[in-house]
């Protein structure tokens, strides 16, 4: 079996931009863009080797955030350096609107997915199910004698003053999800965020000790006791628990917000047949079971089984998916720039 390699964007640009697409196909190397860290480790160690062995192909991971990967796809439209890409659902909506993804080939595996995981016209599909809910510091809650949180409105409870950590809605999907969840409770929608921006300064705002650009700092802030309450996913909480941190996840009674990681076959990629085959493999139950075992990735394939520990923590996934809030990414992306400016000027000023 061949060995996976991870390359930086700079290395790929330096070594591959001059190579003809035919040379890529002949080398039987396929490039996949995805988040680095735990996701990359899970896929390269447990999921992708089966595809590599079965197809006599080398898989090279190009790590980066969804925004980074989309930027690479746009910069190399004519001769893309990535065959298949993992993108967060909000970024995937932008990628599709910009025409960098092609339709997935019809396959029985598509019918095994939860309906919301199939994008319109099958131009992409959810490969990992996530949901943004409430995470909290169990140690701090026990010390304070606080009951576990139950609602998105807990972020506005005065008893948490100075103990809420919120990701920036202008740079983090988790922060944006939290903003939109509260906005809905206050009577708004993706077409009308006025309730959230109007109410935030007198409700959640006074409780926030710090707005952070992403979730990387949460680990440190839990250890120092600064963070009591923050938006996060079950997978994100599991990663913190693996580090020995006293955190727990709660699905708010109003419902968590759906967060999908989607897979996209890149248009004009140099080996479309192999790229389509890889996408179908990643959406299959066996591949998603491996991802669940190795990285606590929640399957989007209804036939995939999760480890007992995940089932115990998350409960019945079929029941849970009926409670998630699905946001309108087309509406969000149409107004995102204005929201980001308003957030930065009014909330994080």
TrEMBL record:
<protein>
    <submittedName>
        <fullName>Spermidine/putrescine ABC transporter substrate-binding protein</fullName>
    </submittedName>
</protein>
<dbReference type="Pfam" id="PF13416">
    <property type="entry name" value="SBP_bac_8"/>
</dbReference>
<feature type="signal peptide">
    <location>
        <begin position="1"/>
        <end position="25"/>
    </location>
</feature>
<dbReference type="GO" id="GO:0015888">
    <property type="term" value="P:thiamine transport"/>
</dbReference>
<dbReference type="GO" id="GO:0030976">
    <property type="term" value="F:thiamine pyrophosphate binding"/>
</dbReference>
<dbReference type="GO" id="GO:0030975">
    <property type="term" value="F:thiamine binding"/>
</dbReference>
<dbReference type="InterPro" id="IPR006059">
    <property type="entry name" value="SBP"/>
</dbReference>
<keyword id="KW-0732">Signal</keyword>
<dbReference type="GO" id="GO:0030288">
    <property type="term" value="C:outer membrane-bounded periplasmic space"/>
</dbReference>
